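Structure tokens please, single chain.
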Amino acid sequence: MQLGDSVFTTGVMAWAVSRVGPQHAGKAMAWIGIAMYGALAVGAPIGALLDAYGGFAAVAALAALMPLLAIPIALALRGLPGTARPRAGFLGVLRLIWAQGLALVLASSGFGTIAAFLSLRYAAVGWPGAGLALTGFGAAYIAVRLLFGGLPDRLGGKQVALVSLAIEAVGLLLIALARHPAIALLGTAITGFGYSMVFPSLGVEAVRRVPADSRGVALGAFLACFDLGLGAAGPATGLVASGFGLPASFIAAAVAALASMALVWSVRARPTQRD
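Here you go.
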């Protein structure tokens, strides 16, 4: 399932960016993210309802059916011609976008830390409302993409990424230092506000650094960095939490966001690679 999901996400993102062109890549990535997180938000309560009335078999059946419903939609859309030009290899593309990929790994640790430790942070001090805080993160994440999804294309990915990462770091620090659940809720929402535009902003910079016929490879590598950041966040910040307490894990994630910000700031902008 993970293999299919990974290949599908890479393919649909490369397809979308190729359809709209690199000048609208940020908006395309933002809307794909809205669709993904919106599906998670809608799918969770539907899955719970199905499980209550039909058991896990009903949930599994629906999960298997939904991708099949996407096939006629994909077939109805206009495809894009391939190219006979030789493409750059994976390592060659990675050399062009390594800075944006590493910045995404560092930035994604904030979301990974929230997913792994926010509920534990609330439970450790006896606060109610951890679920509400996660809802606040998701609502802020989607709202920012709806309102500001085109900013990386208009202002430049680097500028938007720097502001987004600074906001993400502030939100994570608020969670770490909170003495009341309302402050933790605010910090979680601010983190979602900042993190929302990190992927499309850095993605715009990555796409502009590679030739058109290598954008699919670049987006695949970029998505792998996103997954790596989420996967590494739990164990890495877990080590910090085990030695210094749960609040320290959020401080470590904030430091990672600031390190990502420093890396983005240090990378010189490059002109867009033409088709």
